[in-house]
TrEMBL record, chains A, B:
HAMAP family documented for this protein: HisD
UniProt protein name: Histidinol dehydrogenase
Cited function: Catalyzes the sequential NAD-dependent oxidations of L-histidinol to L-histidinaldehyde and then to L-histidine.
Domain of life: Bacteria
Organism name: Thalassovita gelatinovora
Positions annotated to bind NAD(+): 130, 191, 214
InterPro entries reported for this sequence: Ald_DH/histidinol_DH (IPR016161), Histidinol_DH_CS (IPR001692), Histidinol_DH_monofunct (IPR022695), Hstdl_DH (IPR012131)
Membership in a protein family: Belongs to the histidinol dehydrogenase family.
Keywords of this entry: Amino-acid biosynthesis, Histidine biosynthesis, Metal-binding, NAD, Oxidoreductase, Zinc
Lineage of origin: Bacteria, Pseudomonadati, Pseudomonadota, Alphaproteobacteria, Rhodobacterales
The EC number(s) this enzyme carries: 1.1.1.23
Signal peptide boundaries: none
Record text on cofactor binding: Binds 1 zinc ion per subunit.
Entry-linked NCBIfam families: hisD (TIGR00069)
Protein residues bound to Zn(2+): 259, 262, 361, 420
Length: 433, 433
């Protein structure tokens, strides 16, 4: 059974703190294994990739077949039914339109000292996207990772995707094609991350690696961080629904279950000011659980990490939600815009009863790669910003240097950095000669 | 002696690759020690901080004296000479003015389906800044870390700074006051990072930790990453100067030395199309080295990691610089703006001979916390963006859901995520009833 809490109860704070502190993922200690795999790929390149793919994916590759050929991709994509292709294209168009608005602007101005200041954004040159194999091989995630990279202007975009027993997911390949991906390699695990970070004879290295993966992939991304950039390390998915008494219990139950069905460690929380709705949603969850294909997973998630919290008013609901800092937040209330104003920490907000979280997973437009495990307190979802970087610009004139140079010299000397001071002084002396 | 290379030589590629690959920092293996310290602070809180500060800083604290009192700060600040105070205030004003332009904008729009989409930026609630003690206790770094946080709207900003033998740097305290820092604790090392991340009886936890530190501090930041956000882990400083034959050899030599004097692992590189200038700068470096107070450090850095590269033309210089992706790039050439257009990877660019890099360390306005070790290929200097995070917004209308909902359902089913599909279908069914 999920946790039921009433925010007016005496022991609420203790129980809520427990909910916040619950550790929802026990990654096995894979770090040593991953370190060995990375060392192997660095030492033996393609040969290591081929051996490891034979071992883990039961697939015999050669340097020539590490990468999907154009004709293989075309042949597999041809299998995709028309409605799925249309849906993927609609999703891609909407994601692209949303992310194009994220491109940051360059700036350059002259300040009152006469100094010219500013910054310029440039794309990462090459990026690699990890796409999981098997059941968790989601074409929607290919779009969500690849489109922001291409919008940012990344020139070379490579995908790595394991194909256990040689079985590829045609929809993943189609999503890659629609998003403009340049290279697709049939490798996975820590070895694929190592190949992207360090390069092999066949695979040139990239500058940034994004995309979800299992504990081995996460550990490998942590290890290559610094050599390349990485995105966040995603934890299990989460949803928090704030609903008033007019919420539709059936819809809310399905929204809660759409997180729960992802993973036994996923978390679904309902906060409501209506005890009647709390009861009705709980009943609806139990009813839907009976018919879900993934009911074993969803039921375990709801039982172990689910929570229903009754509050006196919606302000309290917003305050509690801010302490959770959920990945997904649905506001199924009469005035969702007003309530959204009170939200300070959340990865994505879905406003009103007509906006199920699943819309955001596929076709809404915003990214579905979002901060988990309370990290929305300090981080953001994936965006174009993850594939660009800022170079700051400064240009002094003689007059500007005369105006502000002496202060730089004073501070350099106070920090005992003599050459810093002299580099300014030498120019000021020249100006005074 | 530094490396001398000519880009036309046959073996240039090999030598240049070696320069790029040189490992300039051997952090001792401190990770186990740091893990123990963090566990101790989590278990014993203030008591652990007090014991560790007695041990490492030879300073006996109590829970009451962990934090600097207002009157202590005022008394120490009163010692600061007027010219240093003025310089710090000028620097703070300029840094604030620059960073205020970085505040990102919210967006909210209605697309052609009728869906309302957008995003909203909110500040991190609480941030902690690490300030090293002793020689590397730089007031300028306090400004560079604290001002972007305050511009972003961070409500609670705490500094941790070790005070070995109880000796505090009055300029650091003054910089903190000018920048609007709310709390200052006299603790350092991994224990200070642990206290900021997990909190103790006296120190409330923060959401994000930034600021430079030694190998212990860097290892601690890596370990608490995820529980809180961190900034980049900074490596040794770097400068690359591109100069034509009209460059002033004396100024360029001092600019190269102003990085070299930071650290024996710092790196200074000159790329020029003038063999005469290359020679003159080298001579000037040797001459200035004789008189520098920090000549032992600067000479070791120049000898072990310095490089002078002669190229046929400045386009080649830009291309080589892009492969280095330097932290600081000076363009001491006749037309620095034109050359800057060819730069794709650099932390900060200093345009023209009147802009010594030291201006950027103190009073230029842009941040001096910049990506090192070639990470300008994929990351940016510290900015307001490090202290805000984006929440995406989506609001469907019945019409919008009718238009795009079926595609979401199709994709959910193709990914075998049944509850996702049902959450959309339940609403569509209602609309069709």
């Amino acid at each position: 059974m999920p946790v039921f809490l009433n925010a007016s109860d005496d022991n609420f704070e203790t129980a809520f703190a427990e909910l916040l502190g619950a550790k929802r993922e026990d990654s096995p200690d894979v770090d040593d294994i991953v370190a060995g795999i990375i060392a192997d790929v660095r030492a033996r390149g393609d040969a290591a990739l081929i051996d490891l793919t034979a071992k883990f994916d039961r697939l015999q590759l050669t340097p020539q077949t590490l990468r999907f050929s154009k004709s293989e991709i075309e042949a597999l994509i041809a299998e995709v039914p028309g409605d799925e292709r249309d849906a993927l294209e609609l999703a891609a168009d909407r994601i692209r339109a949303y992310h194009e608005r994220q491109m940051p602007e360059d700036a350059y101005w002259t300040d009152e000292s006469g100094a010219e200041l500013g910054w310029r954004w440039t794309p990462v040159s090459a990026a690699g996207l990890y796409v999981p194999g098997g059941l968790a091989s989601y074409p929607s995630s290919v779009l969500m990772n690849a489109i922001p990279a291409k919008v940012a202007g990344v020139e070379r975009l490579a995908i790595v995707v394991p194909t256990p027993d040689g079985v590829a997911n045609p929809l993943v390949l189609l999503a890659a094609q629609i998003a403009g991906v340049d290279e697709i390699y049939r490798i996975g695990g820590a070895q694929a991350v190592a190949a992207l970070a360090y390069g092999t004879e066949t695979i040139p290295p990239v500058d940034k690696i994004t995309g979800p993966g299992n504990a081995f992939v996460a550990a490998a991304k942590r290890r290559v961080f610094g050599k390349v950039g990485i995105d966040m390390i995603a934890g299990p998915s989460e949803i928090l629904v704030i609903a008033d008494g007019d919420g539709n219990p059936d819809w809310i139950a399905l929204d809660l279950l759409s997180q729960a069905e992802h993973d036994e460690s996923a978390q679904s929380i309902l906060i409501t000011d209506s005890p009647v709705l709390a009861e009705a949603v709980t009943t609806a969850v139990e009813r839907h659980l009976e018919t879900l294909e993934r009911r074993a997973i969803a039921a375990a998630s709801w039982r172990d990490y689910g929570a229903v919290i009754v509050v006196d008013d919606l302000d309290r609901a917003a305050a509690l939600s801010n302490r959770v800092a959920p990945e997904h937040l649905e506001l199924c209330v009469a005035d969702p815009d007003a309530l959204a104003e009170k939200i300070t920490h959340a990865g994505a907000i879905f406003l009103g009863g007509w906006t199920p979280e699943a819309i955001g997973d596929y076709v809404g437009g915003p990214n579905h790669v979002l901060p988990t495990a309370r990290s929305a307190r300090f981080s953001s979802g994936l965006s174009v910003m993850d594939f660009v970087k800022r170079t700051t610009l400064a240009k002094m004139t003689p007059a500007a240097l005369r105006a502000i140079g002496p202060s730089a010299e004073t501070l350099a000397n106070s920090e005992s950095l003599q050459a810093h001071g002299l580099s300014v002084r030498a120019r000021l002396t020249h100006l005074n000669e």
